[in-house]
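Researcher: Here's a chain I'd like modeled. Treat it as a single chain, no partners, no ligands.
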Amino acid sequence: MNRHRAPESGDLDPHPGDPISEIIAEFSEVFAFARTRWSHYAEEVHPDLRGVGVMVLQTILRKGPVTATGIGQMLDMDKSVVSRQVARLRDLELIVAEPAEDDRRVILLTPSDRAEKLLTEIRERNTIAYQERFAGWSPEELETLRAGLHRFNGTAPGLHADGPARRCAREHGGGAARSD
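Model: Modeled as a single isolated chain. Structure tokens:
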């Protein structure tokens, strides 16, 4: 009988030496750092904003104009969560919602000027934090990491559904992957 030893509470990696398991463990560390960073972002943007709201706002900033449906698909979020976040961001005057010219039923979301200014300032401050973490890395090492992450992210499932919301967002640069 072949028995596998269950990981003990002190074991951090159930498959030591397995590159995929080690990558997953490293991503877990990155995610923990990112969650903390999103919380700080949210507080800096507005005291009433939470991390998920900033995630939605960042997506609108990078991919907009985009529909709420497109955001939900890109972030793999439930429609109700996206709807609440969009309403909150509109209340805080951080996004603008306008009908698409080619299909007035479709609402396109873009960041407000205020949001763009705030996020640019925050991004500039946070760039320093990342520069400190990458101190000592060569340009080649940074490029290798960037290229690897870009390749990895490029294999993520894309938008599969079709409909007026996706078509309008895609035509306006918000529903399809960009190369930026």
